[in-house]
Amino acid sequence: MHTYMEVKGNNGVQHSYVSLTVDGTSLVLTKPKGFYQEKVAQIPLAEMKHLVQDEHFGAQRISFIYQNDYYQFYECGASVIDYMKEQLFV
To answer: Mean of the per-residue pLDDT values for the chain?
Structure first.
């Protein structure tokens, strides 16, 4: 699933278009670069804090904190937020 992500942390604010998957115990984020997928992060589900689902300008958004970085994922395309809710809110 592809979506837009914003990360706020000590290094400032970063905006990325990422591919995300859940492999059972981790949220895996990769950034498409042609045929190559650059791994951005592998976030253990158990270490996510303050997991929230809300709306931002009428679109769904999921956010959480991991290692003092604030991650936000915006609804972009078919069912990405629904997929994340199924995987993260269990």
So the answer is: 88
**What pTM, to 2 d.p., does this model score?**
0.85
Q: How confident is the model at residue 66 (pLDDT cuts 50, 70, 90)?
A: very high
35: left (phi over 0), alpha (psi -120 to 50) or beta: alpha
**How many CA atoms within 13 Å lie on the side-chain side of 70?**
8
**Length of the chain, in residues:** 90
Q: What are the two backbone dihedrals, phi and then psi, of residue 60, each rounded to the nearest 5 degrees?
A: -70, 150
Whole-angstrom distance, CA of residue 59 vs CA of residue 44? 26
